[in-house]
Amino acid sequence: MEIAEIPAGDSAVSVHGADQPGSVGGVRERLLTPGRMDGDAYRSIARHWLTGVAIVTSRNADGVPVGLTMSAVTPLSLAPPMFLICLDLASGTLLAIEASKSFAINFIGRDGAAVCKSFARKGGDKFTGVTSRIGEVGVPILDEAIAHVECVLHDTFVAGDHKIIIGLAVSGNVSEGEPLAYFRGAFQQLGP
Prior knowledge:
Order of helices and strands: EEHHEEEEEHEHEEEEEE
Helix content: 10-25%
Shape: globular
CATH class of the largest domain: Mainly Beta
CATH architecture of the largest domain: Roll
Number of strands: 14
CATH superfamily of the largest domain: Electron Transport, Fmn-binding Protein, Chain A
Oligomer: single chain
Strand content: over 45%
Mean pLDDT: 84
Largest sheet: 7 strands, antiparallel
Low-confidence stretches: 1-18
């Protein structure tokens, strides 16, 4: 079996079985053609993935609290405990996380659609009318959360138009309540 070297940025990736019909080595160029899947098709597919809803909070370089609503949250590792979030490269919250080196993931309860809509908008003071406290790592913890985890920045990676943020979990808590869900472009309540 041949192993082909396929350039990937400044490095190379070995692809096993590159000599086989239909292998990644044989179709990589066709598959990675820019614009192969347009944004509308991508969003339509992604909207069919049921997720929970979180508000990621941090503080910018001036100490001002910032945050945004997101569903791109993943528990990553148990040892050490880590979470992964993905933020748009143009996000002010991304800049704040990189400056403060810390963030919190606030998992929002089933009645939290209004606060999620507030944090989903661009600009303005998203914390007006929102009750929060400052957590162990110096970032806001929202009272609306049914669970939260505080993280310190561990690593980052650029992937397309987003940055993958890996946070080392240092503190957190769970309270009662059911989660708010997001499906087909809308907030959903699970169960009766």
